[in-house]
C-alpha cells in the first residue's frame, strides 16, 4: 500500500450512512443500509444487475428523497446546497454550448468559487487531467472518452466532500478504461477526495478501490465487505489480485 | 480539428432545371393571356404586371400610394408585430417550460386563445384600434406569439434530464438551472421559432390589411379587386411573395451567424 495513504481504519469518518431505506410504493428497493466511509477513502460498490445501484446513488446524492434513514457528512445531514457532493454519471454530461474549460468550471461556478480561486484551480485540474490543450474546444469536437474525463475533472474540481461515480467508464472500450482508471486513481491520490465508485465490473472495482461493498439482490442490503489491501499500481494478474477478484465474484454470483 | 471542405459539382442539368422551370411557368402564363385563352379581365400577363410595377413605383393613383410606400408600411407592421411577439413570447414560453407556476397560470389562457385564427380578431381590433397601424400590429403580434411560446416551451422541456440532475448534485438552484442549462439548451428551438413566427406574421399581415387598411401590400390587392384590375392584384401578390422571400433570407442569415456561436 502507498505509504502516504493511511489505513482506512485509522482515518476520520467522513460519510455516515444510517438505516438508508427507500421504497417505491410497496416495492422495497433499499433495505436498511448502514455503513461509514473514511476521509479520503476510495470505496467501490458492486452488486448484481438490477440490485438498485442507481437508486442507491440517487438517494446518496439526495437527488431523490429517502423513505427512512439519512446520510451524514461530517456529522451533518447531507445537503447538496451546503456540502460539496459531486456526481459523475454513466452518460456524458457535457453542456454542448460550453467549451471544455467552461464545462469543467461549471461546478465551481455553482459553488460560488471566487474568480481568482476558480481560475487557479481550473488551471491546476485541466493540467492534471491533461485537458489543457483541448480546453477551448467544444464537446462535439472531442471524443466521448474525453467527454467523460471532462465530467470527472468537473467533479474533482469542486474539491468534493463526497464524489459519487455511477459506472463512469461502463461505455468505454477496455484499453481506454484501463487508462482512465489509472488517471482516476492518480487524481484521487493527488486531491485526497472521498470517492464512492459504483460499478458492475468486478475487476474494475478491485483495481481502483481500497474497500468494496457487495450488495445483495433486491431488497438491497450490504452482503459483504472486502478490503483490497494491494499496493499500487496494481497488476491484474497478480495472484493476490486474482484471489480478491474471485472472492468478490463468488459473493456476487446469483447463478 | 478542421474538416476539409469537399466541393461537389452540381451537374449542369440540375443547375439549368430551376431556371427552365421558372421560364416555362412565365412563358405559359404569358401565352395563356396573349392567346386569350383566359380573358384579360380575369388575368393580367407577366409583361403587364411588370409594366404596372414600373408605373406604380412613381404613380400614387388610383389606390393612393406608390408601391414603395405600400411595401414600407407592410414591412414596418410585420416587423413591429414580429419583434413584439419575440419579446413577449420567448420569455413566456421559456418560463412556462421550467416553472410550474408560470405554466399553471399562462397555459390555460394560451391554449384557449391559440386555436382562434388571428384574422378572427379583426372586427374587435377595428373597434379598439381603428384601421391604423396599431390594430394590425396587434393581430400580427397575436399570430407571431404562438410559435414563439410553443417552441420556447418545448425547447426547455427537451433539456437533457441528466444535465439537470448534474446541476442539482452541485447544489444549483432552480433559477440557476433555468438560466445556465435550460435557456442555452432551448436556443436552437427558439431560433426555429423566429423563422416560423416571421412567416406567420407576414401571412397574417396580408389578411389584416385585406380587411382593414388604407395602405400596405394587402390593401393594394384589395384595391385591385375593387377597381377590377387583375394586374394590380397580381402585382400585390407578387410583391408580398418577393418581400416574404427576402425577409426569410435575411432571418436565415442572422440565425446562421448566431447559431454558429452556439455550436449545436
Features:
heterodimer; A: 255 residues; alpha/beta; six-stranded mixed β-sheet; four-stranded antiparallel β-sheet; 10 strands; 24% strand; B: MetI-like fold
> Which oligomerization state do the chains in this entry correspond to?
heterodimer
Largest interface: A-B, 29 and 22 residues
The shape of chain B is flat
Q: At the third CATH level, what is the topology name of the largest domain in chain A?
A: Rossmann fold
- Using the 3D structure, state the CATH architecture of the largest domain in chain A: 3-Layer(aba) Sandwich
CATH class of chain B: Mainly Alpha
Physical arrangement of strands within the biggest beta sheet of chain A: 6-7-8-3-9-10
Specify the CATH architecture of chain B: Orthogonal Bundle
User: In percent terms, what proportion of residues of chain A is strand?
Assistant: 15-25%
Task: Label the overall shape of chain A.
Answer: globular
* Count of helical stretches of chain B: 10
CATH fold-level name of chain B? MetI-like fold
Would you identify the CATH H-level superfamily of chain B? Answer: MetI-like
List the helices and strands and how they pair.
The complex is a heterodimer of chains A (255) and B (264).
Chain A: E1 13-24, E2 27-38, E3 42-46, H1 53-60, E4 68-73, E5 76-77, E6 85-88, H2 100-110, H3 115-129, H4 144-157, E7 162-166, H5 174-191, E8 195-198, H6 202-208, E9 211-215, E10 222-227, H7 239-252
Parallel strand pairs in A: 3-8, 3-9, 6-7, 7-8
Antiparallel strand pairs in A: 1-2, 1-4, 4-5, 9-10
Helix pairs in contact in A: 2-3, 2-4, 3-4, 4-5, 6-7
Chain B: H1 12-34, H2 46-56, H3 67-98, H4 100-113, H5 122-129, H6 133-157, H7 161-169, H8 174-211, H9 217-226, H10 230-262
Amino acid at each position: 500500500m502507498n505509504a502516504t495513504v493511511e489505513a482506512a481504519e485509522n482515518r476520520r469518518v467522513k460519510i455516515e450512512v444510517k438505516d438508508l431505506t427507500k421504497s417505491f410504493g410497496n416495492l422495497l428497493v433499499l433495505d436498511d443500509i448502514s455503513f461509514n466511509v473514511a476521509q479520503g477513502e476510495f470505496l467501490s460498490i458492486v452488486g448484481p444487475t438490477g440490485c438498485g445501484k442507481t437508486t442507491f446513488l440517487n438517494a446518496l446524492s439526495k437527488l431523490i428523497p429517502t423513505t427512512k434513514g439519512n446520510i451524514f457528512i461530517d456529522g451533518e445531514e447531507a445537503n447538496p446546497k451546503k456540502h460539496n457532493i459531486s456526481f459523475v454519471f454513466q452518460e456524458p454530461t457535457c453542456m454542448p454550448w460550453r467549451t471544455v474549460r467552461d464545462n469543467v468550471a461549471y461546478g465551481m461556478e455553482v459553488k460560488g468559487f471566487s474568480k481568482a480561486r476558480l481560475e487557479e484551480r481550473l488551471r491546476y485540474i485541466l493540467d492534471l487531467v491533461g485537458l489543457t490543450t483541448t480546453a477551448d474546444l467544444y464537446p462535439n469536437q472531442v471524443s466521448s472518452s474525453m467527454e467523460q474525463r471532462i465530467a470527472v475533472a468537473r467533479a474533482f474540481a469542486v474539491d468534493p466532500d463526497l464524489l459519487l461515480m455511477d459506472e463512469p467508464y461502463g461505455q468505454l472500450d477496455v484499453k481506454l478504461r484501463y487508462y482512465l482508471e489509472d488517471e482516476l486513481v492518480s487524481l484521487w491520490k493527488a486531491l485526497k477526495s472521498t470517492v464512492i465508485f459504483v460499478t458492475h465490473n468486478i475487476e474494475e472495482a478491485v483495481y481502483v478501490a481500497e474497500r468494496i461493498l457487495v450488495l445483495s439482490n433486491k431488497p438491497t442490503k450490504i452482503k459483504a465487505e472486502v478490503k483490497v489491501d494491494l499496493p499500487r499500481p496494481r497488476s491484474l494478474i497478480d495472484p493476490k489480485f486474482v484471489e480478491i477478484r474471485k472472492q468478490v465474484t463468488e459473493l456476487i454470483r446469483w447463478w | 480539428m478542421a474538416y476539409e471542405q469537399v466541393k461537389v459539382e452540381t451537374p449542369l442539368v440540375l443547375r439549368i432545371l430551376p431556371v427552365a422551370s421558372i421560364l416555362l411557368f412565365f412563358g405559359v402564363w404569358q401565352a395563356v393571356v396573349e392567346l386569350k385563352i383566359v380573358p384579360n379581365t380575369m388575368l393580367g400577363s407577366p409583361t403587364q404586371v411588370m409594366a404596372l410595377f414600373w408605373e406604380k413605383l412613381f404613380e400614387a393613383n388610383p389606390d393612393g400610394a406608390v408601391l414603395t410606400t405600400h411595401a414600407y408600411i407592410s414591412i414596418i407592421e410585420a416587423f413591429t408585430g414580429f419583434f413584439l411577439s419575440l419579446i413577449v413570447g420567448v420569455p413566456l414560453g421559456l418560463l412556462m417550460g421550467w416553472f410550474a407556476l408560470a405554466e399553471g397560470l399562462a397555459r390555460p389562457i394560451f391554449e384557449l386563445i391559440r386555436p382562434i385564427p388571428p384574422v378572427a380578431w379583426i372586427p374587435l381590433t377595428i373597434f379598439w384600434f381603428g384601421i391604423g397601424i396599431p390594430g394590425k400590429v396587434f393581430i400580427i403580434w397575436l399570430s407571431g406569439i404562438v410559435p414563439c411560446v410553443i417552441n420556447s416551451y418545448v425547447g426547455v422541456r427537451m433539456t437533457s434530464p441528466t444535465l439537470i440532475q448534474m446541476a442539482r448534485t452541485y447544489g444549483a438552484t432552480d433559477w440557476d438551472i433555468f438560466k445556465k442549462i435550460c435557456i442555452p439548451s432551448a436556443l436552437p428551438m427558439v431560433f426555429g421559432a423566429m423563422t416560423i413566427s416571421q412567416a406567420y406574421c407576414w401571412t397574417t399581415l396580408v389578411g389584416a390589411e385585406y380587411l382593414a387598411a388604407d395602405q400596405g401590400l394587402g390593401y393594394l390587392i384589395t384595391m385591385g379587386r375593387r377597381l377590377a384590375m387583375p394586374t394590380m392584384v397580381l402585382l400585390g401578390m407578387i410583391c408580398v411573395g418577393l418581400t416574404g422571400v427576402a425577409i426569410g433570407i435575411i432571418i436565415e442569415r442572422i440565425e446562421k451567424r448566431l447559431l454558429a456561436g452556439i455550436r449545436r
